[in-house]
Design goal:
Oligomer: single chain
Pfam families: He_PIG, Por_Secre_tail
Strand content: over 45%
Protein name: Putative secreted protein (Por secretion system target)
Number of domains: 9
GO molecular function, one term: calcium ion binding
Strand order of the largest sheet: 11-12-13-16-23-18-21-20
Keywords: Signal
Distance between the termini: 92 Å
InterPro entries: Cadherin-like_sf (IPR015919), Ig-like_fold (IPR013783), Secre_tail (IPR026444)
């Protein structure tokens, strides 16, 4: 059937309109997947409410009906849909309807809210554990409360603010009770007691020998909320509660001292003449009130045996009753304020983390970012006496994110500041806060399957106690931190107490609320998208599995400016997570690669292979966001997003193939093409066989393709592809065969083009020559590529080691590179030597078989591109072509050797056996050591210093009369600075007395490890004259040379003798300058040398004392070049050097000096035949020509042989 296509001009406008409509919908689609957290329960006057919606699409505004109204203190933002504030009144469970609007439609959801008043002011009124209106039961099947684990429920123990309160009592522990008289006595009087009241909690029992005790745990709850399955109810806090305990006495028996233990109270009061004493029981963490008498008191409310304690707040608390002897014991606990004649009132330490309301637990919430236990502006701790301990406890079960949950000591200046909260065993350490060093002890205690962790802080130094203000500083420093990538939402409840030696503070509670929202979802391979058996569902529907880790990315973008907020790869299976995010609006895109945070990203990109979007949905069930564009627009509120899902599909993929490089087979021989592989979501791997079809979409230009022996044509289809039948015949040389193909799946979908690359190589040896100034000290042969050191052309000569003859030669090119191939003597299955030389090899001869380099040039290394060398830096490398057809990076390094410097200093010889420090500049103040192409690194002394008994280097002494030490000295490498001055201490012991000269000969070693060919000298001139020479400088002044020097101290000094030399060895006296004889102040002197010689001039001062003793200054040098321009040629020269325009000069004498200032040639005449220099060594020289009128001309030149 034929089809007719319309002109592009006809359908293009319609396409643009549809595209614009789709773009508009992408930024204003109807809201979907709209929700709030629900149901929610808050605490009046405590909870900080922040409810934010989660929604897909864009929202213009939010609305909710005026009725029912939100609780007082809460507000609703119609722009963001956020409900926030602090509720100030209780609210029964109420459901609110909220609508999200935009121009394309609306979405509706509900949220159910309850506000409870958990804090009730008891005002020290009666809390009844019996009597009228109180119901007593045992809801968990027990009938007495006299066994461990029994629960006794007291209903309607109080009514506060219209709210009824219950209390359940757990019998937590029983120790050595022989029998119970009654669990809770309701009779007002009986044998051994009177004045009881049914409102009291009055256990009566018999203890066995040695006494015993019973522990009760009380919990106040809202009336009617007790759950017998969970054995709990909705807890409530009673503020301002008073507890009286009566009749703490004895029963007349031996050791029958009765006691009660309480904790968490603010004050305690005893009678004016009490028979009760208080102490702290560390085992229970409670204060123990113990009778000091074994006498029985029948009046239970007698002041002497009575204790009254007050609580700012009370919710869950423990009471222990007991006796230290056997027999009957009665206990009477009355929760009400009673007038009391006693005056022994003691205040306990107390902590209140929210000082705005007594007993109100402080709470704070965010995504686990340093939640403070209390506001630093509050005073939370009151302690009448010094404190001995500061405790933080919490249930281990609330710590769900492992070591990511921490107690942080903010502002600590030393010690352990971060404490992981998931510890299961004890440990200790210190932390310094506010200048106080605290010990901390961590314990984990398990009772009844419940583990409670405690971190206890005690004073480490400066005493055993600390003041309330110091405890306040520690409290203000406490922070809860959760650094998990995806924290578990919920509350972590902490209890804080301070203790002294008798009392423990009431429990102060802090609730750290972790309220993180997160975004996560999946990018699925979904072969049928929104169609098929799971229509309208994004799911993992693919026969070939799902995306592997990192194969596709989810990109979180700010919709305001399209900046990337997070870029996450999928895990295996397609799951991804952005972790914690702030509530707000976002766009999620599919991307084929990671995107940098802060960059702009505004459209999806898909994994290679032609992947396309087939739908998106916020949720795992049926539904979609009404678009198919690889994009999700979402608003995240207070609910984590777990299923922001995308579906992708793809046609088959053809893989690029790059074969390993291989030798050209030559002639008409063919090479098998590597297997052409592909994949398809439905068919899996495609690597040949039945049903696998290929299409050759381009042919190579430098070879011929064949399939099953037949030449392949353009766009040919190869059915049931057999990889062994596809071959190629490359052209001669080193071509790279390139052609393209496509995979075609069973549904006739074509893959994008894939490229096949098959490189062929020619046989080859190549490498480079480097001006390698640091040798292989850096692990490599490198530097500047070179081919003509000193202007001499370098050659690479190929030598057959079996015959010793040159088989090929090539010039090293301007890039320092050389190469040999089959056209320049190279052949396979042979071994060769590559020789670098200034001598061009002659094939078939021995000319060029050894390495020759210019004067002062040396080989630094011969090796390979990986930095390895043959260990013999001689300009020759051996290479085998037996197992390879190509060897590259056969590299050579060469450089110029360094030049040694020289210098001198003077010093006073102390006489006897004594070391004198050799200043570092003694080696350089005459001339620096230099390396023209690198840097000076070390020196080596070449012979034992003259006139020296011993020399000490870096703390090691070498004696002239010990041969082994002399040998060690001459092999010692001494580090120096960039100018050649040693960087380790050197001292000598002169062998003479008085004036003497010590000469230290040395060679310089450069950064390539090469030694200089010249010898340097460091000279120490010793004298006994104590003139303190501050400075000595030599400078040009016109045709003359001016000497300036200064002294800081002179003692019995006669004069300065100025000495001059042209070789630093033979000295002439120029004149004298009188000194100041004795001086303690700085003196300055000057001398003008009017007849300075051309070339190198050396000067020193001879400092003469009144008694004739003397010493020398350091040597100063200056190169004096002046006169007519002198031209010599050739330059460089080897045998003879000529003077240009010789007839212009009236020659008096000709002198030649080397770089050390030594005269090596002298003559009073010169002819046009020149000066023969064949007897002079290669190097740099200076020629001085003196005319009859005294004019001097100079010129430097080089001798090269």
């Amino acid at each position: 059937m034929s089809k007719t296509f319309t002109s592009p001009v006809q359908w293009l406008p319609t396409f643009l309109i549809l595209l614009l409509l789709l773009v508009g919908q992408a930024h204003a689609q109807k809201p979907t997947s709209f929700s709030y957290p629900s149901p929610v329960v808050y605490s009046a006057n405590v909870s900080n409410v922040y409810l934010s919606p989660t929604v897909t699409g864009s929202v213009d505004s939010y609305s909710m009906p005026a009725s029912p109204a939100l609780p007082a203190g809460l507000t609703f933002n119609t722009n963001t849909g956020i409900i926030s504030g602090k509720p100030t009144a209780a609210l029964n469970s109420t459901t609110y309807t909220i609508t999200a609007h935009n121009g394309f439609g609306n979405a509706v959801t509900t949220v159910t809210m309850t506000v409870l008043n958990f804090y009730l002011d008891n005002a020290n009124a009666q809390v009844s554990f019996g009597g009228t209106g109180v119901t007593i039961s045992h809801p968990n099947g027990t009938s007495s409360g006299t066994s461990v684990g029994d629960i006794t429920l007291y209903e309607n123990v109080a009514t506060l603010g219209g709210q009824a309160v219950d209390c359940y009592v757990l019998t937590k522990a029983i120790n050595n009770v022989s029998s119970w008289i009654t669990f809770d006595q309701t009779a007002t009087s009986g044998g051994g007691y009177d004045s009881n009241d049914p409102k009291f909690f009055s256990p009566q029992l018999n203890f066995g020998t040695g006494g015993g005790n019973v522990t009760f745990e009380f919990q106040y709850i809202f009336h009617g909320t007790y759950n017998s399955t969970t054995k709990s109810g909705t807890n409530v806090v009673l503020q301002n509660v008073t507890l009286n305990t009566y009749d703490i006495d004895g029963n007349g028996g031996t050791d029958s001292y009765q006691f009660n233990e309480f904790g968490g109270f603010n004050t305690s009061q005893l009678g004016s003449t009490p028979t009760v004493a208080a102490s702290y029981n560390a085992a229970t963490g409670l204060t123990k009130f113990r009778s000091t008498s074994t006498t029985n008191s029948t009046t239970i409310t007698a002041p002497a045996t009575r204790v009254q304690v007050t609580y700012s707040y009370l919710s869950n608390f423990t009471i222990v009753v007991g006796a230290e002897g056997s027999g009957v014991s009665f206990f009477f606990l009355d929760m009400a304020y009673r007038s009391f004649a006693g005056t022994n009132i003691t205040s306990s330490p107390s902590i209140d983390l929210d000082t705005s309301s007594p007993g109100v637990a402080n709470e704070s919430s965010n995504c686990g970012v340093d939640l403070a236990f209390t506001a630093s502006s509050q005073t939370n701790i009151i302690a009448p006496n010094a404190l001995s301990e500061f405790d933080v406890t919490y249930p281990l079960s609330s710590i769900t994110n492992g070591s990511s949950e921490e107690l942080v000591i903010n502002g600590a200046t030393a010690g352990t500041t971060n404490h992981a909260l998931n510890f299961t065993s004890g440990s200790t350490g210190t932390v310094t806060v506010g200048g106080v060093v605290f010990n901390f002890t961590k314990t984990a205690t398990t009772v009844g399957g419940i583990t409670t962790n405690k971190i206890a802080f005690t004073r480490s130094t400066g005493g055993t106690t600390f003041a309330a203000a110091q405890a306040e500083t520690l409290l203000d420093a406490l922070r809860y931190r959760n650094s998990a990538i995806s924290p578990t939402n919920g509350e972590r409840k902490f209890t804080v107490n301070v203790l002294n030696t008798v009392f423990k503070s009431p429990d102060a509670s802090f609730s750290a609320g972790v309220n993180c929202v997160s975004i996560a979802g999946h990018i699925y391979k979904d072969q049928n998208g929104l169609l098929g058996t799971d229509a309208n569902t994004i799911s993992a529907n693919s026969n070939s599995g799902q995306f592997g880790a990192g194969e596709v990315y989810a990109i979180l973008v700010n919709p305001v400016d399209n900046t990337v907020l997070s870029s996450q790869p999928v895990a295996a299976g397609g799951g991804y997570s952005f972790g914690k995010v702030s509530p707000g609006n976002y766009i999620i895109y599919v991307s084929n690669s990671s995107q940098n945070i802060g960059t702009t990203f505004s459209a999806p990109t898909y994994p290679s292979g032609g992947y396309l979007s087939i739908g998106e949905n916020l949720g795992a069930g049926a539904g979609n966001d009404l678009l198919v564009d690889g994009t999700l627009y979402i608003t995240v509120g207070s609910i984590p997003v777990t299923e922001a899902n995308f579906g992708l599909n793809t046609p088959p993929i053809a893989e690029n193939v790059t074969a390993a490089s291989q030798p050209n087979p030559g002639a008409s021989q063919r090479v098998v093409v590597p297997t052409l592989n592909g994949s398809d979501p439905e068919e899996g791997t495609l690597s040949g066989g039945t049903g696998n079809t290929l299409k050759i979409t381009s042919l190579p230009t430098n070879g011929t393709l064949y399939y099953n022996g037949v030449e392949v044509t353009l766009n040919a289809l190869i059915s049931d592809y057999d990889p062994t039948k596809l071959t190629v015949d490359p052209i001669a040389g080193a071509p790279t065969i390139v052609f393209t193909y496509k995979e075609i799946d069973a549904g006739a979908l074509e893959s994008p083009n894939a490229t096949v690359t098959m490189p062929f190589t020619e046989i080859l040896i190549s490498g480079d020559v480097y001006y390698d100034v640091n040798g292989v000290t850096n692990g490599a042969i490198d530097g500047t590529l070179i081919n003509n050191p000193n202007g001499d052309q370098l050659y690479a000569n190929l030598v057959d080691p079996n015959t010793g003859l040159v088989v090929g030669t090539v010039m090293v090119n301007n890039s320092g590179h050389y190469s040999f191939n089959s056209g320049s003597g190279l052949r396979t299955n042979s071994t060769f030597e590559v020789v670098i030389s200034t001598v061009e090899g002659v094939v078939g001869t021995t000319t060029g078989v050894t390495s020759v380099l210019p004067d002062y040039w040396v080989s630094t290394a011969d090796g390979f591109g990986d930095g390895s060398t043959d260990g013999r830096p001689n300009g020759v490398l051996t290479v085998s072509m037996v197992l390879t057809n190509m060897t590259t990076n056969l590299d050579f390094g060469i450089e110029q050797a360094p030049v040694s410097g020289s210098g001198s200093n003077s010093a006073v010889d102390p006489g006897g056996v004594a070391n004198v420090t050799v200043p570092a500049n003694t080696f350089t103040n005459g001339a620096w050591s230099t390396d023209i192409d690198g840097s000076v690194k070390n020196i080596r002394i070449t012979s034992f210093p003259s006139n020296t008994t011993s020399i000490t280097i870096n703390g090691t002494t070498y004696n002239a009369n010990v041969p082994s030490e002399v040998s060690a000295l001459l092999s010692l490498i001494i580090p120096v600075d960039a100018n050649g001055s040693p960087t380790v201490a050197i001292a000598v012991d002169p062998s003479g007395t008085g004036a003497s000269s010590v000469d230290i000969p040395f060679v310089t070693i450069d950064n390539a490890g090469k030694e200089s060919k010249s010898i340097g000298h460091a000279v120490m001139d010793f004298s006994a004259l104590p003139v303190q020479l501050k400075s000595f400088d030599v400078n040009k002044e016109g045709a003359a040379i001016r000497l300036d020097w200064a002294t800081t101290e002179e003692e019995n000094s006669a004069f300065f003798e100025i000495q001059h030399s042209t070789d630093a060895k033979s000295w002439n006296i120029l004149g004298e300058v009188q000194s100041q004889v004795n001086s303690k102040t700085e003196q300055h002197y000057q001398y003008i040398h009017e007849t300075a010689q051309a070339g190198q001039n050396y000067y020193r001062l001879k400092m003469v004392d009144l008694d004739g003793s003397f010493s020398y200054s350091r040597i100063k040098s200056l190169l004096n070049e002046f006169g007519l321009k002198l031209t010599v040629f050739p330059n460089p020269a080897s045998e003879i050097i000529l003077l240009e325009n010789l007839d212009q000069y009236d020659v008096k004498k000709i002198e030649i000096m080397d770089v050390a200032g030594h005269m090596v040639y002298h003559s009073s005449t010169v002819t046009k035949a020149g000066i023969r220099i064949s007897n002079l060594a290669s190097g740099k020289y200076i020629m001085l020509l003196t005319e009859a009128n005294g004019n001097i001309s100079s010129k430097s030149f080089v001798i090269r042989k």
